[in-house]
Every structure is written in structure tokens, then in C-alpha cells.
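Worked example 3 (structure in, sequence out).
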């Protein structure tokens, strides 16, 4: 492969997965996604190297790299570290410039973000004190029902009723779910209630920052069709669907920021 043009990378090391995106001439050129390990530096490099390999590039071919996610503080391969909220904002804006509101649900937290027409953050609220309303919460529920995490949404959408979930703590919700199963409630109706319970918690976050169309859903939980439907009902909105894996939005935004920073620093001109 002939190496021509400028390449910019974003690396997002989250609690459950490490992601990378490489841009060439402002377009998505390659991506990488791997499970996060205990070593955040290694996880980020693994994701970056996967993208580099698929693009036929070496790290030295990259003009600028931005790190984000919880692992950004220990990313020696990055030229700069930027918060994930800023990166998700830029990633959503890159894909859909009309987006003004972002729901970001990852493994350990959930964020409600409002942005302007340039993808700059106007306001945000964050649930990071409890696992309820996060990917980890849904992992626990998948374990209770002994089903694959990826199947939870489809099961919830098959429900004929919604069983209310009163517990907001992951530990208590697990016990409550087991009790509901023992009582004879259908798994799909319980899961439907769980998804709606999470959606109501998200609605509480947006009561603090407000909602403006268009609305975008990023993070690993955005792959869950039942969660998307429950949030749309709770917020009374239609969510814009990203053209790429929603887990990559933070890394994409980091790559966009890498491109912007390198231009400001005179590393390229276009």
C-alpha cells in the first residue's frame, strides 16, 4: 500500500473495551476494537495496532494521536489526552451535524450531553456513582437470566407487558429480579421493565441538562434495541442511528480532535 496523505488516530480506552479510529483526509479509514484488560496502556495499543494493521500502516505514519476514556491518563502513545465527553460530542457531530443531544451509555457510567452546532459541549450530567443504568447493570441481568448480553434487547422487545422494577441499586435489582422470576413473571416482561427502569433514570439526567433534537445514542449499550426503544418512549424522541458501531464514537471524536489539534500546531495544512 502506498502511504499518502495525513493520518490521525483516536484511541478510547473504556472499562469494557478499547477502541481506535484512524482518519485519512477527514474520512474514516480504519477501526479497531478489543476487550479492555487490566493494563490500560496495553489495551489502547492493542486497539490502535489492530486499526493500523487493517490500514496497512505503522504508528509512525500517524500525524497525531488523541487518547480518551478512563485510560487516557496513561497513554504514552498519544500526543494529547481529551475527556470522553468532549470526544463523544465531536464524534456525534462528525457523523450527524444536526445532533444536539447525546446519550452515552458505557460499561461503568451514563452521560447526558448537550452540544452546539460545532460539536462543542454546552452542558452535561453524569451517572457514575452507581452501576444501575450502565452496561455492567445489564451484564448482571443477562447473568440472572442466563442469556447472552447481545440478546437482552430483543427479548425485552418481545414482551407483552412491563413488570415494574422498583430497585435502582444493581445488587437489590438482582435480588428483586430473582424474586419476580420465582413469582412466575415472564422473563421478557421483567426485562422490559428493567429496560424502562433504566430509561427513566436517563430521563432524570436529561431533566437537568434539557433535550434538543436531533438525539444521538453512543456507547456499547446503544447496540441494545430494547434500550433504544425504552429511551425513545421515556424521552419522547426519535434517536438518530449511527452509521458505524456506536462503541467507536468516542474514538472517532478523538481522531477528529487529533486532526484539529495537528492543524493548529502546523503539522499539516489542508
Amino acid at each position: 500500500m502506498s502511504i499518502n496523505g495525513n493520518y490521525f488516530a483516536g484511541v478510547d480506552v473504556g472499562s469494557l473495551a478499547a477502541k481506535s479510529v484512524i482518519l485519512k483526509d477527514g474520512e474514516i479509514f480504519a477501526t479497531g476494537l478489543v476487550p479492555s484488560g487490566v493494563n490500560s496502556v496495553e489495551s489502547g495499543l492493542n486497539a490502535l495496532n489492530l486499526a493500523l494493521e487493517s490500514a496497512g500502516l505503522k504508528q509512525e505514519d500517524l500525524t497525531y494521536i488523541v487518547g480518551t476514556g478512563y485510560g487516557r491518563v496513561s497513554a504514552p502513545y498519544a500526543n494529547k489526552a481529551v475527556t470522553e465527553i468532549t470526544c463523544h460530542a465531536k464524534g456525534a457531530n462528525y457523523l450527524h451535524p444536526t445532533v444536539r443531544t447525546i446519550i452515552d451509555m458505557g460499561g461503568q457510567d451514563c452521560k447526558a450531553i448537550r452540544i452546539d452546532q460545532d460539536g462543542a459541549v454546552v452542558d452535561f450530567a453524569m451517572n457514575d456513582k452507581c452501576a444501575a443504568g450502565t452496561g455492567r447493570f445489564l451484564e448482571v441481568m443477562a447473568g440472572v437470566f442466563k442469556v447472552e448480553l447481545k440478546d437482552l434487547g430483543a427479548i425485552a422487545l418481545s414482551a407483552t407487558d412491563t413488570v415494574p422494577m422498583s430497585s435502582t441499586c444493581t445488587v437489590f435489582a438482582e435480588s428483586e429480579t430473582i424474586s419476580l422470576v420465582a413469582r412466575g413473571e415472564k422473563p421478557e416482561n421483567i426485562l422490559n421493565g428493567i429496560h424502562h427502569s433504566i430509561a427513566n433514570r436517563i430521563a432524570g439526567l436529561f431533566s437537568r441538562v434539557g433535550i434538543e433534537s436531533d438525539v444521538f445514542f453512543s456507547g456499547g449499550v446503544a447496540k441494545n434495541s430494547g434500550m433504544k426503544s425504552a429511551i425513545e418512549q421515556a424521552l419522547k424522541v426519535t434517536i438518530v442511528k449511527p452509521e458505524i458501531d456506536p462503541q467507536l464514537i468516542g474514538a472517532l471524536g478523538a481522531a477528529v480532535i487529533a486532526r484539529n489539534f495537528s492543524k493548529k500546531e502546523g503539522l499539516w495544512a489542508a
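Notes: Strands lie at 7-13, 17-24, 27-35, 64-69, 80-81, 101-105, 110-115, 121-127, 215-218, 239-240. The helical segments are 40-55, 84-95, 135-145, 152-157, 170-182, 187-209, 225-235, 249-264.
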